[in-house]
Amino acid sequence: MPDIEWIYKLKKQVPGFLNQMKGKHNPGFYKYSLSGDLYNENQTWGLGNTVFAIKIYYTLNLLKDLSLEEKKAASDFILSFQNPDGLFYDPLIKRLTKIPDIIAAIKGNNFNNFFHQQTKRAETRQSISALQLMNEGVQYSDKNLPSTEIQVTRYLNNLDWSKPWGAGSHFSHLIFFLKNSQLPNRSDLINYAISWVNQIQSHETGSWYKGNPTLRQKINGAMKVITALKVADKMSFSFPDKIIDMCLSAKNDETACDNFNIIYVLHYANQVVGENYRRNEINQVVLERLELYRRQYYPEIGGFSFLPGQANTYYYGAKITRGSAEPDIHGTVMFLWGISIIAQILNIYEKLGFNEFTP
Hints:
The chain has 359 residues and is mainly α. 53% of the residues lie in helices and 2% in strands. Helix 7 (164-179) runs parallel beside helix 9 and helix 12 runs antiparallel to helix 13 (329-345).
């Protein structure tokens, strides 16, 4: 069995990394990468960075140990990005991606993010989930949320399900916002949306898509749909055995998201199908993943790099770092989340003492 003792040191090592990532003059601000950020704390940006920091503290079961002053600084910083319409978004990311979003929309004939609206939706969801971890209530508007079955159908039909990674993500956002809304018919709409997406579930792979996307798209898309089911407290779906077969056939090692997504899908498909289906193979895969995770961990610093050997360069399509050979806060939150899932699969969750957050 591979050496996994290193993961038991994370709870002591990672807080040191987070301390290095804190802004010196702007309370609640965290850097994205250790030293390679292209923008500093004096500029209005960093929403996602602070959201990730809160989720890291929560995963390590250390959020409760932060001082009231630190928690307030973080929540105030996140809330400073909320706009009058209730949406949260980073103005720097919006500005940097304005032209690329327009070009991508025209080239792909997909205008769903032409005005940055999908990115705003994603950042809002992440911000609210982080605030909820700190037991902070937040007000946001329901006015742009689909409130009838016809509107839900239109929303889901407008997504490109031949690229299920993106489409599944925005399906998950829809379920999240419905779940957290004040709409009187929100439960009915959630059930309707899940029923709609289940109509495009493949009998061959168990994933949710149209056309013939890549295996990477199928797995990562399945992860997004399953996060929606988890948010809705409806963790049940057909063909979990096919989903496990699909994941075990894959090599999905390109980024932290890929490395995490395949573990997430395996874990929840395994819960649905029953603990004994291909269990030894699943255990072997997650142990191999831990070895991959370890290669991107910097124990002397206490953080993970999103990419092998270097920090992530782009966030929502905006170039924000130099991609230096160092850890970043995005890779760190993704790998720690993955380890919290792996610990459950290996039955060492209580021993490790991590928390799994709901996205």
